[in-house]
TrEMBL record:
Protein location: Membrane
Protein name (Swiss-Prot/TrEMBL): Protein HflK
Band domain residues: 62-258
NCBIfam families: hflK
Family designation: Belongs to the band 7/mec-2 family. HflK subfamily.
Positions with biased composition (Polar residues): 372-382
Main subcellular localisation: membrane
Keywords recorded for this protein, A-Z: Hydrolase, Membrane, Protease, Transmembrane, Transmembrane helix
InterPro entries documented for this protein: Band7/mec-2_domain, Band_7, Band_7/SPFH_dom_sf, HflK, Membrane_HflK_N
Gene name per UniProt: hflK
The keyword Ubl conjugation belongs to this UniProt entry's keyword annotation: no
Organism from which the protein derives: Dyella kyungheensis
Lipid bilayer topology: Single-pass membrane protein
Chain spans, region Disordered: 1-25, 369-390
MF terms in GO: peptidase activity
Amino acid sequence: MAWNEPGNGQRDPWNKNRQPGNKPGLDDVLRQLRNRFGKLGGGAGGIFTILLAFVIVWIAMSSFTIVDARQAGVVLRFGKYSRTLQPGFHLKFPGPIETVTKVGATEIRSVSDKVRMLTSDENIISVDFNVQYQVSDSYKYLFSLSGPPEETLRQAAEAAVRTVVGANVMDNILTSQGEVDAVAPAPASSVAAASSTAAPAVVPAAVKAQTRDTLQQQTREILQATLDEYDAGLVVTDVSFQNVAPPQEVKDAFDDVNAAREDKQGTENNARAYASQVVPVARGDASRIAAEAQGYAAARVATATGDASRFNLILKEYKAAPDVTRRRLWLETVEDVMSNNPKVLDGSGGRNMIYLPLDRATGKDIQGVGSVMQSAAGSDSNLGGKEKQP
C-alpha cells in the first residue's frame, strides 16, 4: 500500500492524522531508531552500532590535517611537542592523542608603539616606531616565551630604541634621510683650464656621522640580537621611525631652530651656486690674460731678436764700406721722411718768396720728421763708434 493511500493513519509521513494528545515520547523515538537500525546491530545493539559509527567517522576525520602553503603545523602528542608539519596533507593520530596548532610562517606581522626618551645631549624626544617581523620557528614562537610573543617583542623593541636614541644627539636623530653637508666641486673643464694657475682643489665637507637610516639599522640589529637571546623564533624584517619630533611643550622652540637651520642651508647653497658660477669665469679670464702675456712676451722677444739681427747685418756692411753705407742710410731715412710728409718745390731758383703750408702740416708730421732725423743721426754715430773700436 502506498503511503498516500487511505489507511489507519499510521502511514502518513507528515503525521497529519495523529491525534493531538498522542505526542511521541523518548521510548517511541528509541523504538523507531531500533526498528530502523536493528538490522545492523541486531535488536538492542542498535544504539551501540550508532555510537560506533559516530566514533569511526570522528576518528577518520581527525586522523589527517591540511597545512596551508603559508602556514606551519606544530604537532603535540599528549601535550608534548612531537614534530612540525610543512605545508601539505599529513596523517596523524586522532585527538586527543595528537593536536595540531597552525602558525602563519610567511605572514608579515607588525608592532607599533610610541615612547618618549632622553638623548645623549639631555633633550627629550618622542619617537613613533614600527617593527615588522615574521615567525622563523613555529615551535619556539609558541612555547619559548612565557607571555604573548607580541608583548615580548614590543618591550624588546622599546629597549632597543631607547638604547640607540640614548646614545645619539638630537640633531642626528632629527636628520632627514640621506642628508649630506658637502661643497660642490668645480667643473672638470674649469679645473683643466686653470691648471696652469695651480688652484687648490675643493674638498667636500664631512658627511654627517649618522642618519636616520643608520639609526633604524642599529635598532633592528639590537632587537634581533635580543630576540635571539630569548630564543623567540622571530626574525625582524624592518624597523622604521615613523615620527620623530620633540615634545609639544617645546615644539615652537624647535621649529625656530629648524627654520634657522634651513635658512643657513639655503644661504650656503646660494653661496655655492654663486661660487660655481664666478670661479670658472675668473679662472678663464686668468688663463686668457696669462696666454696674452705669453704671446706679447714672445712677440717682443722675436721683434728684439729681429732688430738685433738687422743691426748686426748693417754693422757688417758699414765695416766693409763706411761711406757708402752711411750715405745709403741717410738716403733711406730722407726717403722715408719725405714720403710721409707734404713737400713744397721751388722752381724759381730762390728768386721768389715761398710760403710754406704750415696750416696743412700737423704737429704729428713735424714730430715724425724730427724723430726720424734723430734716429738716422743716432744710427750714423753708433756705426761710427763701432768703427773706432779695435
